[in-house]
């Protein structure tokens, strides 16, 4: 099989040096194609060579009736028609849905593909509908910013776990935080949980206190309005150093704790949500202490592909103001 390899991302570069990604992708794509009947199946004949260099070392091949996309974490999955077209409109693997996790399946007048962060369904006579995990408050992929309030705005997660000092997180984020905290401790770095879940009412009080102290323009750069706070999801945690060194200050980024979470948080599913220099994207002042749990597939992908914000990674509009 003739293959064109166009590696660009850091992870893809590693694979290209090892010579493994194209072979793995080729075998996976070939197996998926054969399982669907090859040239006599709904994909028909190949119309392109295999092409690699997509996000996360992904590859794909084009056929008469659709495509097969492959990535190391999702395998090779076929899709076609209206669903494939809609996925491309949504940004393909660079969009908020990510790669397909299963091949397109149909029943009656309806077909569906499940992706890393959502679903596209096609129904005869109605076309496609998209369900995005970034819109669901219950999903670890939910995106909350100044343009994207929680739905409902008074959403409360559950169950919540105490990760120390009365700080609570949603159970999945809490388990990940405890693993991260232990790993840091094993390397001589003590992380102190400062603030986790905040209810709508608590965030409301906090925000308006900031408004009273600094005025609304400044408050909007350092605190989220109620219903717009990541802390309300139970997926965000502010961390500190023993003794409160540089607590909730930009200098925290230069502490052993700040450097450790910036370098290692992705291994446990966390990203530094408000990095320095990107206020015009995420809308807040630099907060090296504010970590957001998104799960390791996403956090590793963000890190390996060199993205600084979730908005940019997911192809979402910037959200500098309400």
UniProtKB/TrEMBL annotation:
Pfam families assigned: LGFP, VanY
Entry superkingdom: Bacteria
Secretion signal span: 1-25
Residues of the D-alanyl-D-alanine carboxypeptidase-like core domain: 168-295
Protein name: D-alanyl-D-alanine carboxypeptidase-like core domain-containing protein
Record key words, sorted: Signal
Organism: Kocuria gwangalliensis
Gene3D superfamilies named among the record's database cross-references: 3.30.1380.10
């Amino acid at each position: 099989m003739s293959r064109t390899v166009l590696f660009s991302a850091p992870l893809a570069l590693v694979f290209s040096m090892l010579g493994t990604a194209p072979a793995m992708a080729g075998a996976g794509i070939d197996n998926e194609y054969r399982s669907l009947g090859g040239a006599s199946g709904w994909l028909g004949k190949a119309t392109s060579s295999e092409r690699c260099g997509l996000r996360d070392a992904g590859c794909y091949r084009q056929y008469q009736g659709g495509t097969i996309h492959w990535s190391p974490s999702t395998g090779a999955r076929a899709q076609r028609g209206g669903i494939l077209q809609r996925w491309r409109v949504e940004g393909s693997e660079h969009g908020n849905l990510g790669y397909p996790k299963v091949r397109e399946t149909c029943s009656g007048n309806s077909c569906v593909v499940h992706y890393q962060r959502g679903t596209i369904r096609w129904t005869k006579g109605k076309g496609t509908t998209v369900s995005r995990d970034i819109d669901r408050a219950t999903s670890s992929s939910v995106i909350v910013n100044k343009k994207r309030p929680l739905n409902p705005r008074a959403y409360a997660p559950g169950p919540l776990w105490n990760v120390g000092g009365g700080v609570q997180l949603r159970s999945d984020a809490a388990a990940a935080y405890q693993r991260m905290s232990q790993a840091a401790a094993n390397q001589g770095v003590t992380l102190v949980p400062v603030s986790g879940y905040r209810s709508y009412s608590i965030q409301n009080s906090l925000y308006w206190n900031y408004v009273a102290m600094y005025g609304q323009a400044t408050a909007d750069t350092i605190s989220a309005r109620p219903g717009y706070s990541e802390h309300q999801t139970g997926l965000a945690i502010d961390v500190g150093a023993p003794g409160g060194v540089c607590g909730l200050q930009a200098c925290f980024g230069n502490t052993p704790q700040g450097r450790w979470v910036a370098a290692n948080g992705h291994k446990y599913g966390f990203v530094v949500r408000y990095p320095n220099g990107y206020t015009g994207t995420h809308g807040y002042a630099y907060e090296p202490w504010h970590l957001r749990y998104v799960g390791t597939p996403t956090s590793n992908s963000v890190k390996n592909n060199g993205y600084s914000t979730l908005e940019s990674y997911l192809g979402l509009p910037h959200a500098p103001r309400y």
